[in-house]
Design goal:
This protein is α+β, with helices and mostly antiparallel strands. The chain has two domains: 4-187; 254-378, no CATH class. Helices cover 37% and strands 15% of the residues. The chain has an eight-stranded antiparallel sheet with strand order 7-6-5-4-3-2-1-8, with no helix packed on it. Helix 5 (63-75) runs antiparallel to helix 6. The radius of gyration is 22 Å and the shape is globular. The protein starts with a helix and ends in a 7-residue tail after the last helix.
Length: 385
């Protein structure tokens, strides 16, 4: 099975063969601006954007858009706005790398090995060159390797892992293994299962105030280890199965979050599948003027501990990655291993003091929803959250 953006790219190529589609000189120039796609992605259908990119750049060089995108990824801030940039950048790069034309290998090479930098910064912006530079800094005895650099390294590793689901990228990496030899242990890190939950690498981007820096010298991978997607046709099936909505015995139907300094997270969270082998909960609400889905879930963090999180998980993605917007977290204890704790929460990047308190509810969700609707009817027809 091809990735969707690959299928779209092949579809476009089959229509144009060797012709070069054009929307006109000025439109073609404008399409090289990453800001255009960054504004388009949150408000448009993903498939439309992938078709758009494949049509706009089939049989055309895209150096301007690639370098523009890499610069934006390098300077993307942490938090909600940064996640939007990362999502748009990943979609642009996956789509460009999937176009099957004479420039495909050149595009991937530029994406991975671009030597340009931002504002005379010492680090290049290529997806392989940037983390290689961060990794080299980590090896310097006198270098203070701050959490900021660790987070930047983790961000690039996560992007690279996601791009290895594109066959042309996998082929390029197989042919250029020396370009990512120092990153191989992190890119190729196999899943570490905890029960039936999600596996998370040491560089998945989670960090709270009590976490310590991650150890980069974990076990060496053998030469037979491969990056995700390389010769592993069943990998995607395993990935999907980790989040199957399998009912588990649980006396709690809902969780009420209240008293949080960031009032956006307050409200009634209902059961919504599983994560890490236990029930996760969610509710829809508003954050910075956008309708989004708040999730309450358990996951492994970077130092091999487990935490509960209240986060916004981007649509179509699994919880527990650097793409999440985290508000509050709490350590998993023996008492609260299967259910979130009522207290003991700490604020994350988007959190505001005070932290929330949680109430575990045993009522049937149907009864609660019916009650909420009746209250809404009494409130002039406004929905009750």
């Amino acid at each position: 099975m091809f990735n969707r953006c690959e299928s779209i790219a092949y579809d476009i190529a089959s229509h144009f063969v060797n012709n070069r589609p054009t929307l006109g000189k000025f439109a073609d120039e404008g399409l090289n601006s990453f800001a255009f796609y960054c504004n388009l992605v949150p408000n448009s259908n993903d498939q439309f954007i992938e078709y758009f990119l494949a049509t706009a750049f089939y049989m055309k060089k895209s150096d301007g858009l690639i370098t523009n995108t890499l610069r934006s990824l390098y300077t993307a801030p942490q938090g909600w706005h940064g996640n939007e940039i990362l999502n748009a950048g990943l979609m642009v790069m996956n789509s460009l790398a999937s176009i099957p034309d004479i420039y495909q290998n050149d595009r991937i090479s530029l994406i991975m090995q671009c030597r340009q930098n931002v504002n005379n910064d010492e680090h290049p912006i290529g997806l392989l060159r940037a983390p290689n530079a961060f990794h080299s800094m980590r090896q310097r005895p006198s270098e203070s390797y701050s959490h900021t650099l660790i987070d930047a390294y983790e961000r690039y590793i996560d992007i690279l892992k996601q791009m290895t689901h594109i066959r042309s990228v996998v082929k390029w990496m197989e042919e250029n293994r020396s370009a990512w030899a120092s990153l191989e242990r992190d890119i190729c890190e196999p899943p570490q299962h905890t029960g039936h939950g999600q596996s998370r690498s040491d560089y998945s981007g989670r960090r709270d105030s009590n976490d310590v820096g991650v150890d980069m010298d974990h076990n060496q991978q053998s030469d037979s280890d491969v990056i995700p997607g390389m010769h592993e046709s069943e990998e995607d099936d395993d990935e999907d199965s980790r989040f199957d909505d399998v009912p588990e015995p649980c006396e709690f139907f809902n969780v009420k979050v209240s008293n949080a300094g960031n009032t956006d997270v307050n409200g009634l969270y209902e059961r919504d599948g599983q994560c890490e082998g236990v029930t996760k909960y969610s509710r829809y609400g508003q954050f910075k003027g956008n309708t989004c889905k708040f999730s309450l879930f358990k996951c492994n963090v970077s130092n091999n501990t487990q935490h509960w999180y209240i986060s916004v998980v981007p649509g179509g993605r699994e919880p527990g990655t650097v793409q999440d917007t985290d508000f509050y977290s709490a350590s998993v204890t023996a008492e609260y291993e299967s259910t979130p704790p009522p207290t003991g929460w700490n604020k994350c990047n988007e959190g505001i003091h005070p932290p929330p308190t949680l109430t575990l509810l045993r009522e049937d969700p149907v009864v609660i929803q019916s009650f909420d609707r009746s209250v809404g009817d009494q409130n002039g027809g406004q929905p009750f959250v």
